[in-house]
Design goal:
The structure holds three protein chains of three kinds.
Chain A (H helix, E strand, L loop, with lengths): L1 E4 H9 L20 H4 L5 E2 L2 E14 L13 H4 L9 E4 L2 H11 L7 H5 L2 H14 L3 E4 L4 H7 L5 E5 H10 L4 E16 L7 H11 L2 H7 L6 E2 L26 E3 L2 H20 L1
Parallel strand pairs in A: 4-5, 4-6, 7-9
Antiparallel strand pairs in A: 1-7, 2-3, 3-6, 3-7, 3-8
Chain B lengths: L1 H17 L13 H41 L5 H5 L1 H9 L8 H16 L3 H11 L4 H11 L7 H8 L6 H10 L6 H6 L2 E3 L5 E3 L7 H32 L2 H16 L2 H12 L4 H9 L14 H24 L5 H8 L4 H29 L3 H6 L7 H12 L2 H25 L9
Antiparallel strand pairs in B: 1-2
Helix pairs in contact in B: 1-2, 2-20, 4-5, 5-7, 6-7, 11-12, 11-15, 11-17, 12-15, 13-15, 15-17, 16-17, 17-20, 19-20
Chain C lengths: L8 H31 L11 H4 L9 H8 L11 H10 L1 H32 L6 H13 L2 H14 L6 H25 L4 H8 L4 H30 L2 H6 L7 H10 L4 H32 L4
Classes of the chains: A alpha/beta, B mainly alpha, C mainly alpha.
Chain lengths: 277, 433, 302
């Protein structure tokens, strides 16, 4: 079995590369709520079951912006090198940063994808990115982001929230997450078509996506459970680190897998061309 | 070499044909001509048989894979395979106006079948490469096309989504329906093919590859030049020192040559990164401020420095082996005949090193244009070469056709350079250490 | 290259300047390789010298990254050292597993490349070989074609015949990449080969097989061994084909370094790199000794 992002799960399913998953095999919530209602929106797919919600956020190093001075607080601050000078780490991939650029330019989260589907919208996003282009250090693997921040190569970086949490808790790094403008996404279990131990894989999915198990995984990393019934079971000291914590959701964008299925190719090409200029 | 040894045999044959006197005979009475021919053929065959196992191995494990890659660059059977009826209709269609009922009926049937066989995603991906934003149109429409029981199909499908009435979409489908297509090679050159066969440039904001090819060429050229600049004096020194010293110094060239590529790349990261050794030295010497450290890596500079270091031995070794054969007395003779040092070097020594310069430069350039690992690790964004975008399409966008087409173009370039190398220097003269 | 007695002051200055330039180039060549050795003993997780290291304080140096090579990935690295610990390391340590893969793949690929390559070189060195240049160019081409192209092609073809993500697939790929080196080194040895020796052997009544094993092989052996070492280092250092063809079961040392550099740079990489530098020193020494032996045998040593 494989852990994939939502847009990949949809695409794999369309191309017949993964097994169908029978939602009836999933256990209901402890109070009897059927899985169809218990799982959050988008978490149950014909060929995939979500386990966690995670988020692309940006984080800064408090050594660069100490608490007694001005600290970045909004998504617009990430694109403002005058108020907050220094290098920025960004994932070398259009997804998430394009949305962030538009939100920094004042587009409300619910309109982001409509704007980004137009040529002018894409230009607008690149115009924002142009402001920080010379200060960007690109990263590709998730572990690089906290590494860049820790090494002082950058003062702030986009990252997966769990990676930053790991560095905060395990390595005691002075990192701070800015939740404003976060991009929420899901990770889902899928089973490759024709997998040799298909039944065992399905059994594991049933086991690992029940209410308790999903709540338990949040002990280890700050990714939110995909079931509503798991929320209250997450330990209190973990709650503020969850991307789905109401306080963190004030200006959050839910990543749209259909948009990316349609425009990934073109935006990749434009993104790479922009990088080259 | 083969020709020189064939000469006696052909000479004997022409002698016999001239009919000058009685044909010579071997001890057992067979004509010498035939006997000689047979021996030659046999020894040729024997030599060839020794090579056959490796030749077969290289063909299967290397040449066929490379051939597969070239074929991938033009082969795109997805649409034609999974949308057979639509493909047949599109082949007849002139591309001027949105086609009629028959095309829509074919489309409806194909959509339903492709959804059932779970191939609709592949079809959608293929069309989306020609016209962005149409992927979900296909998957969505295929779901709903099941409910269309009878015609008129045109109205029913446009009712699902009015985009189906767009000429642009049908043209994109026509291009996608060619199972052998120039589309990917054209895209690799920032061009696109239209439904009527016309070729147009991609819009400026999507012109990516040609400038990347140029960057690869000029950066490889610069790296070759830097290798020559650094390698020439060292090769000269090594060739003119007593063997005792030159053997010792040669280790300085050979050790890097034998050291893992990843080790050397890692060292450069340790040296050049902003919290690295070199920047620490600069800060300690007061050449750079602690908060304004120099960006020496994850950019073009990083790629150029690390690649020059890695490819330098490939320049020094051929230069050295050529310079070794130039007798130092030539230079002394020029001096004694009144040439000053510069003239003697320029007019007498330099011309004799040209074969070495050619061999080293071509080798370094050939290796540089295809480099992947080092730019990927230390090149950041501005130091990426064409190989990196090929790997990117292989691993990230999964547009393998485009990766194959880009690879095909790069391969043609490299093969041309290799051919030049063979012509000018000869394949026998590649030396290793 | 001593300075001639008639040299003027300008020439003298240039003479010394030239040596300084060469010295700098040698420094450029060697320094990156040597610098990682002290850095790998850093007690802190940094890629640069700490002030403690520069002051030669003992506690600024440590072997922790070398220990990390062994323990990273182990189930119970903190258990007392003993048989169980060793078994755990052998099966679970990521670097040890990668090393085992590297050696297995490297040795198989080398054997294949050396066997086929030597045979072919014997054929190519014969004057009667038809289409010699064309065949030779073809056989050398794996060295010239950019690795990304080769690896991508192999990925397409080997997946189609179910060889991707198998040890055999990686071995075949590495053998193909290693053969050019064997051909080049063995043909180079054969160029200076005195053919009368073979005829002498045959005329004294030795059958062809005896001639090969008693006369030819001992003479070309240095070339064969250096070719084999080249093929081995090619496989041992190769990462692009591994990236495209190998699954998690075929992770090699360079593959492990690749993800280490891209994802989580820690001085463990420097410790591994230091060990690899010593491997290359050992290989280089072997090659040099072979080369000198071969030159002595052929009487061409200068």
């Amino acid at each position: 079995m494989v852990d994939v992002e939502l847009s990949d799960a949809i695409r794999l399913c369309d191309e017949g590369l993964i097994e169908d998953i029978d939602h009836a095999m999933l256990p209901p919530a402890p109070d009897g709520t059927p899985p169809e209602e218990d799982f959050i929106e988008g978490a149950l797919q014909p060929c995939a079951v979500a386990t966690i919600t995670w988020s692309t956020i940006y984080a800064f190093n408090e050594e660069a912006f100490p608490e007694d001075g001005a600290q970045p607080a909004t998504i617009a601050d990430f694109f403002d090198t005058e108020a907050f000078p220094g290098k920025r780490g960004v994932r070398k991939w259009p997804k998430a940063i394009m949305e962030m650029a538009l939100m920094a330019d004042g587009v409300p989260p619910e309109e982001v994808y409509d704007v980004l589907a137009t040529d002018e919208g894409v230009d607008r996003a690149f115009a924002q990115l142009d402001r920080i282009k010379d200060d960007i250090v690109w990263w590709e693997a998730g572990a690089q982001a906290p590494q860049l921040l820790a090494d002082g190569e950058v003062v702030m970086t986009t990252a997966y929230n769990g990676r930053i949490y790991g560095a905060q808790v395990e390595e005691d790094q002075p990192f701070e997450i800015v939740w404003d403008g976060q991009n929420l996404d899901l990770d889902l279990w899928v089973v490759p078509a024709g997998a040799p131990n298909r039944d065992a894989a399905m059994e594991f999915i049933t086991f690992s996506t029940d209410t308790q198990r999903l709540a338990d995984q949040a002990k280890y990393i700050s990714y939110g459970p995909a079931r509503r019934s798991s929320f209250p079971l997450v330990e209190a000291d973990m709650q503020p680190h969850m991307p789905t914590n109401p306080e963190n959701m004030e200006k959050a964008l839910i990543s749209d897998p259909l948009f990316w299925a349609d425009y990934q190719e073109e935006l990749n090409q434009r993104f790479n061309t922009w990088l080259l200029q | 070499m083969a020709t020189t040894t064939l000469a006696p045999a052909t000479a004997a044959a022409s002698d016999a044909r001239d009919g000058r006197g009685e044909a010579l005979r071997a001890a057992d009475g067979t004509p010498l001509k035939r006997k000689l021919e047979r021996t030659t053929r046999l020894s040729r065959l024997r030599a060839f048989l020794l090579v056959v196992p490796l030749l077969a191995f290289v063909v299967v494990s290397f040449l066929v894979p490379v051939g597969t890659l070239l074929w991938r660059g033009v082969s795109s059977p997805t649409f034609a395979t999974h949308m057979p009826r639509t493909t047949a209709v599109l082949a007849e269609w002139d591309g001027r106006a949105v086609p009629g009922e028959a095309a829509f009926a074919a489309l409806a049937a194909d959509l339903v079948d492709a959804r059932e066989s779970r191939d609709i995603g592949k079809v959608a991906t293929r069309v989306n490469r020609e016209l962005s934003g149409t992927r979900s149109l296909f998957t969505r429409s295929a779901r709903r096309a099941e409910r269309i029981d009878e015609g008129p199909f045109r109205a029913a499908i446009i009712d699902i989504d009015e985009d189906w009435g767009e000429l642009e979409l049908w043209r994109a489908m026509k291009v996608a329906s060619w199972s052998v297509t120039p589309a990917f090679y054209l895209q690799a050159l920032d061009l696109q093919v239209e439904a009527d066969g016309a070729i147009a440039r991609l819009p400026e904001e999507r012109q990516l590859h040609v400038s990347l090819f140029w960057r690869t060429l000029w950066m490889s050229g610069l790296i070759t030049f830097l290798c020559l600049l650094l390698g020439f004096p060292v090769a000269y020194l090594l060739a003119n020192l007593p063997l005792k010293y030159s053997n010792l110094l040669m280790i300085f060239v050979l050790l890097p040559f034998w050291t893992s590529l990843l080790v050397r790349t890692t060292s450069w990261i340790a040296l050049l990164q902003s919290q690295g050794v070199l920047n620490d030295v600069f800060v300690a010497l007061g050449l750079a401020a602690d908060d304004r450290r120099l960006q020496l890596i994850y950019n073009q500079a990083g790629t150029i420095i690390a690649m020059t270091h890695i490819l330098l031995p490939f320049m020094i070794l051929p230069l050295y082996s050529v310079m070794k054969t130039i007798p130092p007395s030539y230079l002394r003779a020029a001096r004694s005949l009144g040439a000053d040092q510069v003239t003697a070097f320029r007019r007498v020594y330099l011309p004799q090193t040209v074969p070495g310069i050619g061999a080293g430069s071509l080798l370094v350039f050939i290796l540089a244009v295809g480099y992947y690992i080092t730019p990927a690790l230390v090149g950041g964004q501005s130091g990426q070469l064409i190989s990196n975008i090929i790997a990117f399409h292989m691993e990230s966008t999964l547009n393998w056709n485009l990766a194959a087409a880009l690879g095909g173009i790069l391969l043609v370039g490299v093969v041309l350079l290799y051919w030049t190398y063979n012509r000018l220097i000869g394949i026998d003269n590649i030396k290793l250490g | 290259m001593a300075l001639p007695s008639y040299a003027g002051p300008l020439e003298r200055a240039w003479y010394y300047a030239f040596r300084v330039i060469c010295g700098l180039v040698f420094f450029f060549l060697m320094m990156p390789i040597l610098i990682i050795i002290p850095l790998s003993f850093n007690a802190e997780p940094y890629f640069s010298f700490t002030s403690g290291m520069l002051a030669f304080e003992a506690e600024a140096y440590s072997l922790r990254w070398y220990l990390d090579i062994l323990t990273n990935g182990m189930v119970a690295p903190d258990e007392p050292f003993g048989r169980a610990w060793l078994a755990d390391m052998w099966t679970n340590s990521q670097w040890v597993r990668a090393l085992r893969n590297s050696f297995f793949i490297g040795i198989c690929a080398t054997a294949l490349a050396t066997g086929l390559g030597t045979l072919a070189a014997l054929g190519l060195a014969r004057a009667e070989m038809p289409y010699r240049t064309a065949v030779m160019s073809l056989l050398i081409s794996p060295m010239i074609v950019p690795l990304v192209i080769t690896a991508a092609g192999m990925f397409f073809f080997y997946s189609a015949i179910d060889l991707a993500q198998t040890h055999l697939g990686v071995i075949l790929a590495h053998a193909a990449l290693g053969t050019p080196f064997v051909i080049i080194t063995v043909t180079a040895t054969l160029v200076g080969f005195d053919k009368t020796l073979m005829r002498a052997g045959a005329s004294l009544g030795a059958p062809p097989r005896t001639v090969f094993f008693k006369i030819v092989l001992p003479l070309i052996l240095p070339g064969v061994i250096s070719g084999a070492l080249f093929a081995f280092i090619t496989s041992f250092d190769e990462v692009v084909a591994v990236l495209f063809l190998a699954g998690p079961e075929q992770r090699t040392i360079p593959r492990q370094m690749w993800s280490g550099i891209r994802e989580q740079i820690s001085p463990t990489i420097l410790a591994v790199a230091t060990l690899l530098v010593f491997v290359s020193i050992a290989l280089l020494t072997t090659i040099e000794l072979l080369r000198r032996r071969s030159e002595r045998l052929r009487g061409t040593a200068g």
